[in-house]
Structure formats: C-alpha cells, structure tokens
Design brief:
Blueprint lengths: L5 H18 L9 H8 L3 H28 L2 H20 L4 H30 L5 H29 L2 H22 L15 H20 L9 H21 L15 H17 L2 H11 L4 H8 L1 H18 L4 H20 L12 H23 L7 H40 L7 H16 L4 H45 L18
Length: 522
C-alpha cells in the first residue's frame, strides 16, 4: 500500500520541478536551427557538426557525470551546476564563431547531465521506500517527455518575440528557478551516495573514441553517400577495431563502464533491442517536421504548437501504463498497446502526406504518438533494469543509451535521411520521365503556366522557361511526398510486426519482476 505524508507531497513536487531545466537544456532551441545557422553563416556541414556535438558530449559524459553526481554534496552541486549552466548558456549568446558556440553548448550539455543525476538522488533515496520502481520510472518519464514538448513550444514562442536569443534567456530564468528551489528543498548539504571514487578512465576514453567515429558518420555519412565513399567504409572498420580493443580492455579491468556480463541477462539483450526499436520508430518525427516546413511552409511556431498534441497522449498513457505496471499487468499487454499506437501514428500519416494538409490533420496522429511513447518508454526502462544487480546498473544504463540514442536516434536518423534522399531521386526521375507531350495532364499544366507568365509580360522564351521550372518544382515536391509515404508505409509494417511476434510466440505474458537499480532516464 502506497502512502505519502501530505507535507512531503510539496517537497516531492519541488524536487521533481528542479530536474526539468536540466532535462531540457538542448530542447529549448530545437526549432531555431535556421536562425542560428543564419546568425553564424556557417556551412551546412559545419553546422551539422555543431548540432550533433552537444548531444554526443552529453552522452559521452554520462558515465562520469553519474559518478560525480554521487561524490559531491547535493545542494552545493546543484547550485554550482545551475550557476555554471547560466554562464555557459549566456556565453553561447556572445560567441563570435560557430566553433565557440558549439563549445559552450557542449559544456551546457555536460553540466545538464550532472544536474540530472544530482537532482534525482534525493528523490530516489527519500521516496524509493514509498514509491516503488514502476511509479518512480513513470513519474520521471512523465516529466521528461512532457517537459520536452513544452520547452520546445515555449522556446519557440520566446524566439518569435525577437529572435533565437530570447529562447536562451528563457532557459536562464529556469536555471535561476532551480537555484531558488535548491535553497528551499535541500535542507542538508550532504553527499548521501558517496563512496570511494573508482572510474574506468581507459574504458571511458575508448568509448569516447567510439562516439567520435559515430559522430563523423552522422555528420558526413549522407554527404559522402555512405559505403560508396572509402572514408566512410574505413570508419565502419574502425568501429569494429575499437570494439575489439574494448573487449580486450574489459579483461584487464575490474569495473568497466560496460561490463559484457550484463548481456548474460536475457532482459538486457531484449531490452536493448526494444530500446533500439522504439528509438527508430520515434526518429521518423523529423520527417513530419520536414514535411511541415519544407512542403507546407509552416513556421516554427506553427510546428511547435501542432506538436503539443503529443502531450495529450502522454498525459493519458504514462499515468495509465504506470498504474498497470504497478498493478502487475502483463508486459505483453502494454507492449502490444504501445506498438499498435505507433502503427496507427505512422499509418494515419501515410494517408496525410499531400499538399494542402492543415495543422488539425496532425492532431490525431500526434495523440497516437504520445500514447505510444507513454506505453512503451516506462515499460522498456523497467524491463531492461529487471533483476540487474546494482554493480551492473551503469552497464545496463549505457547499453540502453547506446541502443536508443546513439544507434537508433542519431546514427539511424542520419541513415534515414540518406534513404529519403535516394527515394526522392528515384521518384523524381520516374515523374520527370512522364513529363512529355504524350502526357496530356502535364502538357495542360505546362500550357497553363506558360499562359500565366505571358500575361505577366514575359517573352515567349522566358515564359516557356518559367513554366518548365514551375512544373519541375511541382514534380520535386511530389517526389518528396512519395518518398515520405514510402518511409511511413514501411514503418507502419515494422510497428505492427512486434505485435505478431508477441502474440504468436506468447512472449512477455507476465508482470514486471524485481527492479533494484536506480531509475536513470535514457
């Protein structure tokens, strides 16, 4: 039976609010990339690196941030990280080059990781005896996923007042609020989880080298057309070499960052696959954003406001899935529901990719996306942590991070971009071959465009060229829409495929088991 003293509810809410700015240090400028690119005037490739590096810095610093978060006194650490975050965030406004902007953003990302761990420790220690793990995981996912959408929206609204700098100032206000909350809710300045500091420095450096290679592939794989470029092929070979070096390193150290023993637990293997799968399904959101901006011409505020519909699904699914997990419902029931919602999201949007679609047409699909995240993410986080001993908790965490964030979201998103480009070229070639005098519809459209430009006072030659260019642009738009439809049709099938596997092979027909490791967010 769960019971919480009324006086502690206020403290619990305050402690959770304290985590929000650190979860969203990079989310607040999600829709401002075009303004930032225009401000610095960097090349597309350099700006791509600038976008990826802070995320890789955050993920690379994750294991060390976890250790630091347990060693230093909590209130001192929170106040220090909040103050340093304000400095780094403000310094990014005064950066004169994209390189310095990236440095300050990366420092902000690293500080946010320390802030997340430091702010969560009191919650875990104080309320874990009261709230069992399903409820802790559910609350964390509820705050993390919900605040992400809100920060992206409010950051865009702040940007619309003046420019992208207002979104950065908005984040500074949130860090100031974190300082105030730290003074209120952290009465004692102690390090409750402090233990002898032991860290796998050599393994960490090998992992960072592995991430650097992935960073190169994400930033330049598409422009180099992947395996047709010898440097890309060489980088993939380096990945295998680095992996081999790490396996040798593991045999020479007692406490590696990722202990291969973690994969003796079947749920960690299947959980990592599940993390990869959910990350892959979620990464197709960039296609919708591209469709809104590139095809429909929505501005960033319109895009952010439309995505708020995801919150409705989150507000329904996360509390419901948390309750079901706590009541020990079968895992298969939650997973089938989550995969079905992802399938509905992709399936409905498959029929919505057409010019002239309105923002209200995205409302239903985004609710299904929110439902899918709400059902799958808490359950996946619990499942991968099931029966894992505490000394392998960090290994479990890094396994999930690499599967979902590195391979599915970052590298998978880059590969998806290449796949869309190739499909676009194929469709454009096919459509262009139909633009001939034998195609009466195309010929009629060409004549209509030509007559329009003739009435504008252009010569017959200029009107002909303008009309052909206009028809070519329409063909390019149609080709891109067809490429989007192809991706979402495939993803719809991939979303429903796990449901068949779960039902046919009667997998996961049991409730969640014992979870003892910390609910570190992925």
């Amino acid at each position: 039976m769960i019971s919480v003293k009324k006086g502690s509810v206020f403290t619990l809410v305050g402690l959770y609010l304290l985590t929000i700015p650190f979860f969203n240090a990079l989310n607040v400028t999600s829709y401002d990339n075009s303004q930032i690119l225009g401000h610095f005037g960097a090349s597309t490739t350099i700006f791509t690196y600038s976008t990826y590096i802070p995320f890789f810095a955050m993920l690379g610093f994750l294991p060390l941030g976890l250790k630091i978060g347990k060693q230093i006194k909590v209130r001192t650490l929170i106040l220090s990280v909040s103050f340093l975050s304000i400095i780094s965030n403000t310094a990014s406004l005064y950066a004169t080059t994209i390189q310095w902007f990236t440095v300050w953003r990366s420092l902000l990302a690293i500080l946010s990781i320390i802030g997340i761990f430091a702010s969560m420790i009191p919650i875990i220690l104080k309320y874990n005896p009261v709230f069992n793990m399903p409820i802790l995981y559910g609350i964390i996912q509820f705050i993390m996923q919900g605040s992400k959408q809100l920060y992206q929206y409010f950051g865009t609204e702040m940007t619309s007042i003046h420019n992208w700098t207002f979104g950065v100032y908005f984040l500074n206000i949130n860090f100031l609020l974190a300082i105030v909350l730290a003074w209120i809710f952290y009465k004692k300045d102690v390090a409750p989880m402090k233990s002898p500091f032991q860290f796998d420095w050599r393994g960490w450096l090998i992992m960072l080298l592995f991430f650097v290679v992935i960073l190169f592939l994400c930033a330049e794989g598409q422009t180099r057309n992947w395996f047709s470029d010898p440097k890309v092929t060489m980088e993939f070979a380096f990945l295998l070499i680095i992996l081999g070096i790490y396996l040798i390193h593991v045999r020479l150290t007692k406490v590696p960052i990722i202990n291969p023993d973690i994969y003796k637990y079947k749920n960690v293997v299947l959980g990592s696959i599940l993390f990869f799968y959910t990350g892959m399904m979620n990464s197709t959101g960039s296609i919708v954003t591209g469709f809104m901006t590139n095809i429909l011409g929505f501005d960033s505020i319109y895009v952010a406001r439309t995505h708020l519909a995801i919150l409705i699904g989150l507000f329904i699914a996360i509390p419901l899935s948390t309750y079901l997990l706590y009541k020990r419902i079968y895992l298969a029931t939650i997973w089938v529901t989550g995969f079905a919602c992802y399938g509905m999201y992709h399936g409905i949007l498959y029929f919505r990719f057409y010019p002239g679609i309105e923002s209200t047409d995205f409302f239903g699909p985004f609710i299904f996306k929110g439902l899918a995240i709400g059902f799958l993410y808490p359950a996946a986080s619990l499942y991968i942590s099931e029966n894992v001993p505490k000394h392998l908790g960090d290994s479990r965490m890094m396994s999930g991070v690499i599967a979902r964030a590195i391979f599915a979201s970052l590298l998978g998103g880059a590969i998806l971009g290449t796949y869309i480009s190739n499909l676009n070229v194929q469709h454009k070639t096919g459509l262009s071959q139909q633009l001939s005098s034998l195609n009466t519809v195309a010929q009629a459209q060409l004549n209509k465009n030509k007559n329009y430009y003739l009435h504008q006072g252009l010569s017959a030659w200029e009107a002909e060229k303008k009309a052909e260019k206009s028809l070519s642009n329409q063909t390019s738009q149609s080709a891109l829409i067809l490429a989007y439809k192809d991706i979402y049709l495939v993803m719809t099938a991939l979303c429903f495929f796990p449901i068949l596997v779960l039902l046919l092979f009667r997998i996961a027909r049991r409730p969640i088991g014992s979870v003892a490791v910390e609910p570190i967010p992925f």
